[in-house]
Records
---
Amino acid sequence: MLDIKLIRENPDVVRDALRARQMDDSAVDVLGRLDERRRQILSEVETLKAERNTVSKEIGKMKDADARNAKIAAMREVGDKIKGLDGELREVDAELTSTLATLPNIPSDATPYGVDESENVVLNTVGEMPSFDFEPKAHWDLGPELGIIDFERGVKITGSRFYVLSGAGARLQRALIAYMLDLHMKQGYTEKYTPFMVKQETVFAAGQLPKFADNLYKDHEEDLYMVPTAEVPLTGYHMDEIFDEAELPKAYTAYTPCFRREKMSAGRDVRGIKRGHQFDKVEMYMYVKPEESQAAFEKMVKDAEETVALLGLPYRILQLCTGDLGFGATITYDIEVWAAGCNEWLEVSSVSNVGDFQARRANIRYRPEGSKKNQFVHTLNGSGMGLPRIMIAVMENYQQADGSIVVPEVLRPWMGGVEVISGQ
């Protein structure tokens, strides 16, 4: 969440940021009026309370009963005014908070301007594209032919955009998750196993509400949300806490299934397992001091790169432009891998520096040494990686002419030594 002081003192910064994101900037004027009215009410209440305190002292010294009763009656009217203003203040506060919650983060100066995803910038491409002496197949053909992906029964069990992984397919997914978690621990992250359902306050703290309410799965009876990403519970993990400076940085990794309605992508990527309402992901998350924020971002990008590179997959790094930047991010690098069967680049990781945007929502601060004033931490998040897209790339890039799939060497310890996935 943005600091209201920023809107009060530098409204044009926020207006420019919204326009750069291709968004309407009228909320800035609304917030300005609400903030001004809030401060007016506080000033009026303070004046009335001061008057009441002064008169109350006078009443205690008055000997004339009639004059004292008149003063008491007048103070009742003052009390009623204060009560009315307090009620209006609550309404203004609620409207101010709800409006403020709709504003995205301010893009970093390093984030390039762009209207939409077509203007994202390719920073680097690494690795050689695979070549075949046969026509490579897409995973939606490879999987069923090998008996490791069952689309029909997934639809039968639940509906469209669901599938079942079987045998070596299920084991390959599990191997990828274990590989990523173990690698991230070597990179300095502490593994967390978090709940897959969280409270509304936790979802709000991570910046998912109110923006993405229509894409979240919710248990209305218990008022709990299924997690759309491990970023949400990892944000909530230190909600309303104050770190000592020496405790920072904190680096976590967690596996969760992720649940999203995908309403915003209706009609897109309907074939295969690339986009579904349920998928698995391993997340990286960091809490850092503001001055360490950029270095932490660079580390997380490097860690995500290593995760792909060790799998032997060609990949590229994109910097998102302002028009494609996520709601809470100030800067984002995406990592995409090449999938030879789909014949396209697939996003498998998105690494973002969120600044203090989530920390303000979640009230996460730290106590700088030698300072009496607590400061908000900066948070960063990154996929390390997202399934099933990384599995799609493994299947399609490591396929052989006979339809089998070579298991990347780094995954074999979690595959029981299986080197090739053949028909089941």
Note: The two ends are 51 Å apart (CA to CA).
---
Amino acid sequence: MAKTKKIYFALLGFGKLGTGFYRVWQQKRESIKEETGFDLELKYILVKNINLKRKGDFDSSLLTDRFEDIAEDKNLKIAVDAIGGIEPTFSIVKHLMAKKIHLVSANRSMLASKMLELIKLANTQGLYVMPEPSLGGGVPIISALQRDLVANRIQSIIGILSGTSNYIISEMTKNNISLRDVLKYPAIQKMGESISIIDYEGTDAAQKVAILAAAAFGIKVDFLHLHAEGISDITPFDVTSARQFGYEFKLLAIIKNHEDKLEIRVHPTLIPINHPLTLVHGEYNAYFIETDLLGSYMLSGRGVGIEATSSIILRDIVAIADSLWKSARKDHYQISASTKTIMPMEEIHTSSYIRFPCLDKPGVIGEITTIFGYHDINIASAHAQVDPNSSDEIGYVHILVDRALEHDINSALKDVEQLNLLRGKIKYFRIL
């Protein structure tokens, strides 16, 4: 084997992800050295409170509460951001990059709003920024887009980006139970760095798709400005109704590449049961990519978990080390700027499933479909169903709509809401 090359790096943050990565690094250090010739030596662990009592077996001499210690170390080449949040992390990272330290980041919040600023700084300093660990799993989607598919024009990326949400939907579908019931599962608490409402209300997936859009298309995206819906409104009856018409629910992040705009959105979506994405269950993520040369291309793997994220972090450290050892960093980072804007949700065309709880009386379907026809919306099929559990003559009208403008559908729904026949909330889900 060739002579071992020492690579020094720092770990920023020592919470759940930081401590989990530390454990994986200890386990894999020797095998990585044998495999690659790089000895990855952790030199600092940046923490907020150095005197805090911490559990577990670790080298306490690595702890520091001064990022200046890291910045001034001439031998240190790489920093791994496992802190989370935008500030003070962004300021710390900028300071380290100004000192010629490369960045591997698992920080979704920061990258989802500051990605292109970091790339510009990286280009100025001749550094690498590796954002893939921030997507929260072990699927190498960004490297696939930038390397394996470099000759392709990416036409669309349809992704299951939240392993937690996918697990919840899978359990709801399999066991015919509510989201509230699934959240009581002990397995939920063990999945990621933490479990919070952002995991199933769409924010988690919106942050990830903003990072993905920046990496794939070079545009500046603030995840707060993206259309994002979560899964909390899905009921067991919704799941049953979807299955009745040949569909299954998934929380999807969708990017479509138009001539002058990008379509980016996150929402629960009905997928035909024969689509490859319906095979992705539990805490797994997947990316279904349409290209001009390869056609359809799909990647799938674990979407949550410390081990999955640590796998990508260690890969990125080795990739930077390999690049630095063999050749200088090229002048411009892979992500190039684009002038494309994000398409407003109202301009998007989509098929959809709509359910109306209403009085069970003659002519109800006709009244609803007449309004949709007035808005030039083509209805693929309409079905009436009596609610056997209701004593108040309540039924449901299920409508499947062909591709239509989101603006027109919203206008039609507002008109239907004015009819004196609704007896509950209209349920509206888009179809892939």
Note: The radius of gyration is 24 Å.
---
Amino acid sequence: MTPLIVPEHSWCARPAAADWSCPPPPSTPAELHRSLPAYAATPLTDVPGLAAEWGVRRVVVKDESARLGLPAFKALGVYYALYRMVQDHLGGAPVAPDIDSLRAAVRRIPDLELVTATDGNHGRALAHVARTLGVPSRIFVPDVVPQGAIDAIRKERADVVVRPENYDETVALAAADARGRPGAVLVQDTAWEDYEIVPQYIVDGYSTMFVEIDEQLGADRAALVVTPVGVGSLAQAVINHYKSRGRPVSVLGVEPDTAACVLTSLRAERPVSVPTGSTVMAGLNCGTPSSLAWPYLRDGLDAVAVVTDAQSLTAARQLADAGIPAGPCGAACVSGVRSVLADPAGRAALGLDAGSVVVLLSTEKSRQAEHLGFRDEGDRERRRGETG
């Protein structure tokens, strides 16, 4: 395996990823999503100030703050996963990729209940989709998740179970719960040994976002796509789309310094679990890479950077000034690029020049930063102490 270039502790790059390719994702997700009554392509917004700062032609932000009536992109994966899971349950019987056919098919499955663990947006999306389809849901949530996020899940009429364990342990509890009750089905967005089919469906569902980006860019082509990284499922979807296109597109992953499982794993050249701490980037507060995502991260991720809460919140305020209501997870993309470009080797590692187009994925609406009220790095450390 090609050694990593590790210029400093905050980021690393893997040059071999530039030549790696993979088969494309399916085209069915976009067809299904476009049948949804609430469907509309989310905005792709230019930020000229960042383009000038980074010395590139364009910086655009894919704003997922109002996807399908929810404040994040996660429903894309949930809808498609349920569509595929229903077909599997019905013995592979064909179900048309539209919401009416999906709703009718769900009614053919007795006692169905959807179960998951979440650090916020995935659980809310599952609860919302379940309510839309008339199916009950049970959502397990670590108690470090902000109360506002928990309340939002409850408003979707889900049975919410708040637990003192960390994210990885809460996932295990949800899986055990689903195994132990007739009709309960786990719909989890991270994979492990013997649980990779549903997470792959979820990843495939995310592909609609990148189909939209290609259409919105028109004749332009992305040189760099920057994605937040938790367990790696969204990053897997990014890599799957762009590394299957036969184009020289770099992918940069960004994760919190409190949960840098991907950076740690890339340096170790194997999946590594790390302890996690409190962070405003709650959706990225994951200590173990998805087993399904890992081969894509290992071979197709051109670089990964870690950022602090303070850096993320500063970037969120700057994006808000540009009219983009980015939460701290999506805003971390700005900080990640800055971290890499601060190093003399960074521009070459990302493949950027004056004509480049950079795409940032703003994955959720700003809510956590306002709820938690972090002001600076010292405040972050004080809050971390308060929450244990």
Note: The longest helix spans residues 75-89.
---
Amino acid sequence: MNRVSVQEADFDPGTETEALTVGRTDVGAVATFVGLVRADKLGGESGGASGEISAMTLEHYPGMTEKSLEAIVAEANTRWQLLGTRVIHRFGRLLPGERIVFVGVASSHRSDAFAACEFIMDYLKTRAPFWKKEDTPEGGRWVDAREADDSAAERWKT
């Protein structure tokens, strides 16, 4: 089971994790990642000074975004022996502490689950067509890609 969703609505990580294993006895490991909106900017990594973020707005290209996420999941399935994946990425205006992304990976073995979960998240950060705008006391600013994200994705190149 591979499922990808791009949605405005929040999600329940517990429900999504359980869906990867319900009725299955072949799953030996599930690795998950939940990304949240931080209230602070990352100093030099985001290209500005540290400060408060009051909200983040995520925009995407409908249709293209889902296809990009599906391609990332398909690539993960060629690299590791996976029994199921679930990727949810939200869009719209989100407040600090709100969930942005869920990646869940089920496998027979933990090494495949951990690696695939990390791979999907690294590629999602660098290859999925999302645009982020931070609202700060100084006004709104679009967030540039971070070198750290590009470096993380580079290690997966074969």
Note: The radius of gyration is 16 Å.
